Every structure is written in C-alpha cells, then in structure tokens.
Amino acid sequence: MVEYNKVTDxxxxxxxxxxxxxxxxxxxxxxxxxxxxxxMGLEAxxxxxxxxxxxxxxxxxxxxxxxxxxxxxxxxxxxxxxxFALPAIEPGGILMDMTRMNKMEVDTENRVMIVEPGxxxxxxxxxxxxxxxxxxxxxxxxxxxxxxILGDAxxxxxxxxxxxxxxxxxxxxxxxxxxxxxxxFRTGSWALDGAKAFYRWGVGPNPDGLFLGSQGSxxxxxxxxxxxxxxxxxxxxxxxGGDSWEHIIEPAWAIGKYEMGISDNTVMVQGGNWPLVMTRxxxxxxxxxxxxxxxxxxxxxxxNSEVWAHSQEELDFTLKRIDEIYKDYEVKKKTVCKQQxxxxxxxxxxxxxxxxxxxxxxxxxxxFLFITWYCPWLESSKMMEEYCAAMENYGFPPTxxxxxxxxxxxxxVMPILCFDSSKPGIYDKIREFNIETTKSFLKQGWINYRPxxxxxxxxxxxxxxxxxxxxxxxxxxxxxxxxxxxxxxAIPWASxxxxxxxxEGE
Length: 506
Ligand SMILES: Cc1cc2nc3c(=O)[nH]c(=O)nc-3n(C[C@H](O)[C@H](O)[C@H](O)COP(=O)(O)OP(=O)(O)OC[C@H]3O[C@@H](n4cnc5c(N)ncnc54)[C@H](O)[C@@H]3O)c2cc1C
Known about the structure:
Uridine Diphospho-n-acetylenolpyruvylglucosamine Reductase, domain 3, five-stranded antiparallel beta sheet, Vanillyl-alcohol Oxidase, Chain A, domain 3, alpha+beta, Uridine Diphospho-n-acetylenolpyruvylglucosamine Reductase, domain 2, globular, 32% helix, eight-stranded antiparallel beta sheet
C-alpha cells in the first residue's frame, strides 16, 4: 500500500516560496470552490491546498517539493471534465490549478497552435474569429467556454471537427512534459533543439499517448502543439429523423463512408432522442410525455450533420448527396427518415461555438453526469438501446446523445444522467447503474473513455491485465512515488477497489 503524507505547514511554506502567497491557498471556502459533486464530480474530495503556478519552472519546483514530501498532486485546467477525470479523490493533497499559464501562439503557415494548459476554448475561439477567421482552433463542441483546449486533448474529447479529424488527442503534434523528478522533455519533432512541432512521430518512438487519457497521472503537460483546421464560412446544419436508433445510425454510416468526399464536409455528426430535449428544462415545468414533443415536430430519434464547405456550390452538392443517401436508405429499409424542419434560430444556435447546448442539463433536477463510451459505429444502436432500458430501470430519464468520430468509424455514446443530487442514496444508485452497464458493455468489447476510478477503471483493467501490468511499469518510470493524481486509472489499485489486482502475486 502506498502511503502519502499530509500537506504540512512546512510544505505550504515551501509552496509559497515558489509561487508567492497570493497564489497558494488553504482557505476552506476556496478549496470547496474546486469541487462540485452535483455537476459531474461524484467522488470529489477537498484538496488540502490549491496552488496556481505561472510557468513551467514553477510547476517543476512544485512537483519536486510534492515528490519529496510524498504529497499527491492533482492538475486542473478548466475543471470541467467532471467527476470521471478531474477532482481530487482521497487522499486530497495539492490541487495544481493551471489557469494562470494561458499563453497561445498561432502559426498558420504550419497550421499549428502552441497552447499552455490555461488557454480556454471560449477565448481561443473569440481570438481566432477576430485575428485568424480563416482558421479554427479545435475546441470541444459543447463544453462551456471555460474548458481548455489542452484539458480536452488530455481527455481525448470530441471537438467541433471530430467527425472529420477524430478525437481531440489526434490533433496533438507535440507535448512539453514535466515529471515529479523535475525532469522535462518534449515529444515529436519538438524534442530536437530549436525544431518546430511539425511532425508528431519524430525524433523517435513517440510516447505522447501515455499522457493523453492519463487524467493527469503520468506527468504535467505545460505546453502542447495542436493542429488548427481551415474554417470555411459556408455552413449549415441538416437533421434527419427516424423511429429507432438503427434508422439514424445506419444512414449516417452510409454518409461516413464517403471519405475524401462529402463526409469530409460533415465535420460534426451528432444525434439523440427526444428526452435529450426534455431534460434541458426544469422537470416541474415540462411535459414528461413524448406526445407533446411529437406535436411540436420532434422525432423520437434524429441525427444532425454540421456541414462546412468552401463555396455555396460545395455546400449545395454535399446537402444534395446527403439527401440522396437518406432517400436510398428509406427505400432499402422501407422506413421513413424525415428531414427535420429546423428553425433558422436552431441552426444559428448549433453553429454558435462554444454552443452551450449541453449546459442546461443541470436545470432538470440539479445534478447531471455525462458517462462516455466508444464502440464501433454500427454497434452503437445496440449500446444505446441497452443503456436507455437500464436508465429507465433505475428511474433516470433515458437522455442519450451520440456522435460520430472520424467518419463514423467509432461512435461516442453518452447517456446524460439527470438526477436530484439532494436525494439520499442517489450516488449509490448511480454507482450500481454504472457497475451493471459497465460489466455488460465490457463483455461486448466496448470501451469507456473517461474512466471513473472506482468503477470503469478497475473493471476494465481486470479484463486487460497484461496491459495494466505494462501501464503500471510505465507509470513507475515516470512517477516512481505515484504522487500524480493517485487512484486515477486504478493506480495504486488498492486505493480504489477491493477486487483482486491484476498484479497479484508479483
Ligand atoms: C456542459 C458540458 C459540456 C461538455 N461538452 C463537451 C464537448 O462537447 N466535447 C468534449 O470533448 N467534452 C465536453 N465536456 C467535457 C469537458 O468539458 C471537456 O473534456 C473539457 O475540455 C475538459 O477541459 P478542462 O479544461 O475542463 O479539463 P480539466 O477537467 O481541468 O482536466 C482534464 C483532465 O486532465 C488533467 N489535467 C488538466 N491539466 C493538466 C496538465 N496540465 N497536465 C496533465 N494533466 C492535466 C486533469 O487532472 C483531468 O484529469 C463537457 C463538459 C460539460 C460540463
């Protein structure tokens, strides 16, 4: 069992000597402001101290102090990835708030931006709109403006161009990393003194994947080079409905296969079911029956395609081909996939970035939680059917969202659990729901992408023991005392579960 130490006054003094008094606090109300269990942070505990470094050198010194004292360190950027990735969990320790490090450089010639961890999506979008309107930073499509570009890449999230370019981690061209030993290095071509971050895989085997998806447990990233993408201005949203998950998933797959063609223009393809609309309002103020939503023209299921094109002609061609593919599908499957009549205001609000569309789920019953899974695109209908049935069984509205990753190669499936966070026993209920669905989904070969340390991570690694063994070895090279975000990715194992460890007997 790994033993951690409390953050003593002595340690706080050392931290103050690094960043200055103004940027280190153990004030209880301020520490509480870093955890919110109702919104996404089910297992959050209070950090013992919060520190806000200004630069890489300060990060390095903080890590060395923490390593000497065996104090856990949780890095936080925008703090919006929620319960499954961010908050400090037992044993608390030092929360490193990275938001003061917010420099951004843009190189349109090499189509890359260099961001520090505190560069917020809303700011990047606003600045690009003004200074580089022909280019777009890959910001998460629906996250609040305070979420960061780097936080989303570390999470391997879905950006506004994920349908075309893949998960946000695929946009990385290089990372600058600091380890608890105080060592620093860069990945990709950036590792060569003076070189630009123009080639992700040089100068040798590239270890950046160890940090993307690590939930801050492998090293602290102090800079990232991220691809920027063209931002053509002929844009719209089209939506088609259906009477089942299959009838929205299959035609989107038929479109997705037109890579190097119209599917490159459908930058974001996302869909859902009618409760996705209902739960964006306070529960006591909305009809809870589909009939109402049917009357106002909302299909039971639908899929949106956000289309970006370089000319009106290209946009019209793409829309025409999308429509033809749906019509062919209707004939083949003897079904109806009605084109949805979107109000110009609906189109405008979807095209607006960051679009804030996911923020109101807190209104329904105060608490909400996104749980996210990846599966092969065509298997997502089955997953969503099973998920919705389980949600109803557990008394949650079956609010479900799905999006295409990389031309409908994979689906990101996301139930949104809306719950009353003041209800006794609600967190246990969510946990049971999570255990039941996770066990079933893992059996079917599907993967959770933002693993909860107490449920998803141990259950997943129990079924991928060889991988877990290697992961722990890599982790010990980078962070021998396991001070970084302990518990995340089920390392150390015993801190999150009583189940038999994949390392048992070693
Ligand atoms: C309403 C809402 C809508 C959302 N919509 C989307 C969406 O459309 N697309 C999407 O992808 N996500 C979405 N999210 C999830 C989340 O907002 C994004 O993934 C977000 O970009 C995470 O960034 P952050 O700055 O909040 O990261 P944080 O939560 O601060 O951090 C993310 C993870 O990285 C670690 N970390 C942070 N900084 C560092 C560092 N410098 N070095 C090492 N590790 C670090 C943290 O410990 C944590 O594990 C949404 C969330 C909410 C609440």
